[in-house]
Amino acid sequence: MLKIKVKKGHNINIAGVASSEILAPQKNTTVSLSPENFRYIKPKLLVKEGDSVKLGDPIFFDKLNPEIKWPAIASGKISKIIYGERRAIKEIIFNIDSDIENDSPNIDEKKLSNKEDVVNYLLEKNMWPFVTQRPFNKVANPSDNPKSIIVSLANTAPLSVDYNFTLASNKDSIVSALINLKKLTEGKLFVAVRPGEFKYLSDLDFIDMVEVEGPHPAGNVGVIINHISPITSKDTVWTVQGHHLPILGKLFSDGIFDPTMIINLSGPVVNNPSYFKSRIGASLESHCKGNLSTDKVRVISGDVLTGKESMMNGYLGFYHSSISVIEESFDRSFIGWLHPGGASKYSVFNAYLGGNKSPYSFTTLQNGSHRAFVPIEAWEKVFPMDIYINALARSIEANDFEEMEQLGIYECDEEDVALCSFVCPSKTDVGAIIRKGLDTVYFDK
Amino acid sequence: MNFLKKILAESGKLFQEGKPLSFAYPLWEATDTILFSTDSQNKSGPHIRDNMDIKRTMFFVVIALIPCYLFGAYNIGYLYSAAMGVSSSVMNDFIIGMTYVLPILIITFIAGAICEISFAMIRKHEINEGFLVSCALIPLTMPPDVPLWQVFMGTSFGIIIGKEIFGGVGTNVFNPALTARAFMYFAFPTKISGDKVWAVGPDGYSGATALAIPANPVEYDTASNLFAASTQFDYSLMNMFWGLIPGSIGETNKLLILLGAIFLIYCGIASWRIMVSCVLGLVFTSVLFNLLSYLTVDGILQSGGTPNAMLTITPLQHILIGSFLFGTVFMATEPVTSSHTNTGRWIYGFLIGVLTVIIRSINPAYPEGVFLAILIMNMFAPLIDYYVIQSNIKMRLNRNV
After folding, report:
1. How many Å apart are CA A27 and CA A18, to the nearest integer?
2. Closest in A332, A349, A419 to B5, CB measured
3. Which residue range is the domain that position B22 belongs to?
4. How far is B28 from chain A (nearest CA, A)?
5. pTM, full prediction
6. How many domains does chain B have?
7. Cβ contact, residue pair A345, B171, below 8 Å
């Protein structure tokens, strides 16, 4: 078993951690699939408003890679297709027809023996988008030969779901998913877990267990890749979200697409933060309604560091498994920079007296104005890779392709530097810089 | 408070783009955010942020400097009373000192604010609180009797040439406070050369600084003996540590500087790596020179030259003499102009220590070497970083093969 011990990082002590009970969300009849959740694709619709579809039917495909199609995430009618600027498809909203959905599905177990079989099966079932790749954090290209496959079951992000809890009853489907994922690569299949969790996986000899210890971002796929299997411009590493393993597992073993999963609703303004038995693309309102202590909130699909801001009537992103809610605050305290500290302040610097002890109620406040960057070793405190992140950011701002590649742009992703933005006293958005660099090298290729 | 908030919000409209006062927007933004913490929102990316910001970071450095100001003022008064041969209370000494320190401080801030604010308006960038630190540092490096017009010139030069022409905070090459100091050193050498003591007293009052004593000995002896023989000021190790000796306003009390260092390191603002490596570099070189001095005295290296008493200064004396500690703690650690990589910080600091001793001991024309050493290393910091980063690139390339 490989071991990764991360020292640099920080577990944000944020209030509103979900309690370990699983509730059912309020009844909601719509779910949404948004092509905007997928990078670098050109979606072309295969359906129109009002069409009836069944779970798993193709909804749209990527014009740049026509074999990749996206599945219907519910059975029922397509109630609405929302377009954005220049008729970009923003969202496809499904009306769930529970009568059709509960029909007994066709069981067609297949014998899949090699990479080609597995790829074809996933493409044929329109389930390929569950497989993503690094670099670029986009849907994988089926014709690539990945150097390795990494699945992280160690979620370290603040307020993210605890896989050890949510996936506890999915042993069979997880094993089935991993057996078939292994066929996709000639390299190794790494599964990252926290010490003492998912013990049954270590009996499986075809996977390489990685034990990660340490504060966030220790469990991020990018950090694990950087430690055990660094990538270059030529390599790709494939990955699957932990909460998608049961979905893929059922697909491989039973041939059915079951979009249900356990997600969490958490955050300082949630009255009763807890887990929900929910599904891909679920409506946020059905989880939050009546459960928030204030109206002025920002609802986030995903975690508070990397999630996407959404409207109350928005939907869970395709890859997301948590809903976070924080207060939208416009408070301006008098001479706030002189504040001595106490429970109302939180900092990774020792800059306030007696802070950080009790769970802190973060708001949307930036807590300072944007300033020119001053390198006081803030980013380095929370960035556990052997990459000079400061130099990399500079090369991106200078648009220096060669240097970006040399400094390891391929190994980074926005989520790996989210904590750098969190701690930055100049309030620089490091993630946006890294994304800009990734976009630059992606379109240059 | 709400009334004030309203006034700010209303007046702010006049400073928006396209409005008559839009050129002065940075000034309004600075006033607004000094009075009330900003209500800027996290847009994308992290939706939550740490409470630390640049205002507080810079303010903390200023806090660390305040004790140096207070002691500096007292020390000026103490030495004045001693020179006049009168006994005086601590409070009285302090007030005498303040009459020298305050004007310098005020002039520095006026000059600094004029430069920073006008550049912020012209360049349309925010007023960076970093200039407060530069302006708080400059008076501490000044002799108490420096003419105020020279302070004004020096500060303007430091802020404009040291910082603004490179694009402001974050992109400057040289430490602005040290640039100001260096400008004054070379532009007004009669006032600030550093071999005569900086103390205020009766007309014509003067004396040799600690560093000038071994630099120009009447007769060759070891530095320790020369210090002990000095009658005008007490240059014992203990007294140099407590700082009741003439010097720049802020440099003399080493205890307060060390407390400032501990405070800044604890808060995570200044780099301990730079401080430690500066001291290591200084100790390494001075020990080397001490060894060399034994050779010279024994006559091995003596042919032609006269023995140099500066070589016999012990590491501890080097640390306590002059502004080495002040420069190490508050100047060398300036984050923008020092190295940006941790390996680089070790090399950068070590070389500052080495250069300080070399400039002090080998070249007696410049008795105080710290500020020159730091400025030289400011210049080389990007080069050090370049090689550190190249090794990372090479490591990555090797991995790819």
Report:
1. 21
2. A332
3. 2-35
4. 13
5. 0.91
6. 3
7. no
